[in-house]
Amino acid sequence: MLRKLIAAACFAMLAFAAAPSHAQNAIPVASCGTLSASLNPAIPHALYMDVNGNLCIAGSFSATGGTISNATSGQATTATNQGAVSYLYGFNGTTWDQLQVDASKFLKINCVTGCAGGTFNNNADNVATSATNGQNAVWNYVWDGAAWDRLYGDSTNGAFSHVKAWAGTALGAPSAYGTSPGAVNVPGVNAFVTNTLTGITPGDAIATGTYPTGSPTIGAMLLWNGTTYDRWKSAGATGVAAIRQTDGTNVQQLDPCQSEVKSTLPITLATAAVKVIAVGVSAKKIYVCQIHLTNNAADSVAVFEATTATTCATSPVAVVGAGTTVATAATGYNFAANGGISLGTGSNQVLQTSVNANDLCIAQSAATQLTGSITYVTR
Fold first, then answer.
1. Can you give the pTM of this predicted structure?
2. CATH fold for domain 258-378
């Protein structure tokens, strides 16, 4: 029997442990805030509800809050809104109104104050000033001291520019070329020469100095000689400018055979005679750059100069040795049979006359064949 009682007690305990938890019950009271006895805050107590079934809670709150709607404007203000709305509203000073868009979904804006601004046009000058311009103009205007004026121009010349003053100084009216603008202020770059220039032929020994306004320009090449200016001289009738080498102190004279045009002539003589081998030129001497002579028998040959056009007969002067005639040829070159001479290479002077315009001559003492050539210049 005892065993049966113990077993029944165990089954009861197991059944109680396996049973689900029950919701907590609330004790009804006449009204919230009125209890039948004082409660001990140190121990748990049951929940209470009023006779209408409302759970008693300390304090107060609103369970409904403000309205949430996107169907109307004029939504009232409230401190108890519970929901969130993503619709855009604008405050009109008293209530909230829906913000509206047009058919293209662009927000409508109605500018009420300070929106009209000044005028906006490009068909007139003297556009009035304004502190409330609400539009932007891309037309170019300039300030005339009282109003704004358009900048003028055309498609050919571009913008027109009217320069009335420089650095605060008013400028005078422009004048035609060759006409003085008068006693007015003009830009510093306006320089007009009123004198007439006359041509001159430049000379030598032109002194240095400052020349007065209106002096003509000398259109010739002038060279400094250390004291004055001289014309650049021409080397002969060809118009080639003469140049002399110098180290700054000493002038180097170029060899005539290097600076002048050469002439080459043959030489042939078969009798004891005198012959011109180079004709003289007025006011110039003959410079031999190369001479070549050979013979076929023993012979004597004199090289000399004489007055031109006299067949070497007037005022002869020896160039080599002392011979000036057939009789005195032996005082010149003495050649054995099949002998001769060859002087110079053509690049430098080897012989020369001493008197301007003289001919260069040879005299042979024997009737033998004398053959050769001469290269020379005159200067």
1. 0.41
2. Jelly Rolls (2.60.120)
